[in-house]
Design a protein that fits this description.
Strand content: over 45%
Number of strands: 9
Order of helices and strands: EEEEHEEEHEHE
Number of helices: 3
Structural class: alpha+beta
Shape: globular
Radius of gyration: 16 Å
């Protein structure tokens, strides 16, 4: 298993909740709970609790980044809020005044950016069914992810 995995969150159309271009504030969801993704995984509510406490924007050592396309050389903004709600992993980001940040705001307003993805390490997971069962009924999922170490949330072009 890789130490660094990615998950896309284009399952509901709610990736971007709101954008205030004048203030440079973007809110949305990096991840959604309780849906089967393309890898057969289901992220459960609570999976991000520990990582947010340890490395989130309000922690003693904020380390979770907001990036463009998982590229560490393309930071978009500073996460000001990161929390779990009933829907998923919600974020608020203060987008930088640099060219990339301003272009990012314009891409959101133009409808070019509608998806997010997370970069993470799986800490705890439970197998829901064996591989053969998953191949017969993928809608039930293969694994449920119950604890993740989040490195970053990315907006995708």
């Amino acid at each position: 298993m890789s130490n660094y995995l990615y998950k896309d969150s284009n399952t509901t159309g709610l990736a971007i909740k709101d954008v205030d271009g004048k203030k440079g504030i973007v809110t949305g969801y990096f991840s959604a709970f309780n849906n089967v993704d393309s890898d057969g995984d289901i992220i459960r509510k609570g999976a991000f609790t520990k990582t947010i406490q340890e490395n989130g924007p309000k922690s003693a050592k904020p380390r979770i980044k907001h990036l463009m396309n998982h590229d560490t050389s393309m930071p978009l903004g500073l996460l000001t809020d990161l929390k779990e709600d009933d829907y998923g992993l919600a974020y608020e980001s203060k987008v930088g005044s640099h060219t990339l940040g301003q272009d990012y705001i314009k891409m959101i307003e133009s409808g070019l950016i509608t998806e997010h993805s997370i970069g993470f390490k799986t800490i705890k997971r439970n197998q829901l069914q064996d591989y053969e069962g998953y191949m017969k009924n993928p809608a039930k999922g293969w694994f449920e992810l119950t604890e993740l170490k989040l490195w970053e949330g990315s907006s995708l072009t």
